[in-house]
Amino acid sequence: MRNFTMAMLLTFTALAGKAQQANISKWASTQLLNSAPLKEAHTGISIYEPATEKYWLQYQDDKFFTPASNTKIFSLYTGLKLLGDSLPAVRYYENDTAIFLKGTADPSFLHPDYTFQPLLALLQQTKKQIYIVGSGNANKRYGPGWSWSDYADDYQPELNEWPMYGNVVRLYHHRDTSVMIPDLYDMAVQPDDTSKEVITDREERSNYFYLKFNKKDNSISKTEVPFITGSIQDLRERLEDTLHRPVGVAMSAPTGKYKLLRSIPVDSLFTPMMHRSDNFFAEQTLMMCSSLMWDSINSRRVIRYMQDNALSTLPQSPQWVDGSGLSRYNLFTPRDFVTVLTQLYKEFPTARLFEIFPTGGKGTLKNYYKEQFVHAKTGTLTGSVCLSGYLVTKKNKTLVFSVLVNNNRDSATSVRKAVERLLTMIYQEY
Fold it and tell me: What pLDDT score was predicted for residue 22?
């Protein structure tokens, strides 16, 4: 009798599971795949329940897509695995007369979002001669496949081994007053009565900035424009300007044991990286990981290391080329994202992850998921709209999901609304 009861229970469970999958598949077809925004697009969906180790929905989840900023999920996992509890501020070595410093790619140095500046305190307190030592940076100032024409856009600062101020200048304007912070470079300020708003720009090959404004506009504007980071000599000049004292460049690294100075807690970087989709923070995360692992900077080496070790069990081997997702060379499957998100869910506290990932009404999800049942990362490029993360249903089931849409010709907003309808139905029913 007991065996019969168990058999019946397993049968009912299997039938319920099949009915559930049929319902969700039907919703996906009507609410998403055959909706106007996605009917002619390339779409992949993967929805998985870690507790039962079962997929609720799989639709083209083994196909490759350009994931845009969903790539930051892989950068987050890398940072959580390799960085420890705080960022590496610098490696330094001291003798009786001098202090030698190697940049470790920490993007928080002199960044206005962070008041805790242990490296600045060290440099201000020391009476010794300061020298910069090259960090062995194999990266270029931009990632593979980035758009060269976006050099003056705030979402694409240059990458280097010792960032300062987030590698951007902040241009403020109100009425007749224009200010550059930090005041490092020249700027031409030009009245332009045809401009409806303040327009900022930079020469492509020099740190010469432009600001145009309408005299009738009384609003306060703030714009961030990347500066050219240049060589180690340019870094020296920026540091001298900040410290108001001479800084040297060591032609070769002195022998001796370098100490590691730590800076801000990692989550204070990861949270804005995910909430506002900060490309700069994501790229520098991979660079910091490389610096910690091998005392040299090479993002490709970090990516290979992760794919050979912590990510060796991915169902499909992705083409992963940068930390931010700005590159269209990146190719991932929805099942890859579900896999890494499941690993995150198993290896780190849920409360911590749900704080790092944006939720409804916050960050890049501020206009969606008002009931806050989704904790997920958006991704947007022209013709690429993606969302991957966690969904907690009304019956308190935690699901891991990834919806990747490519080659859509409708607006990103309309695609996001269609995805929201599907995920809301799952949330309400299960």
Answer: 83
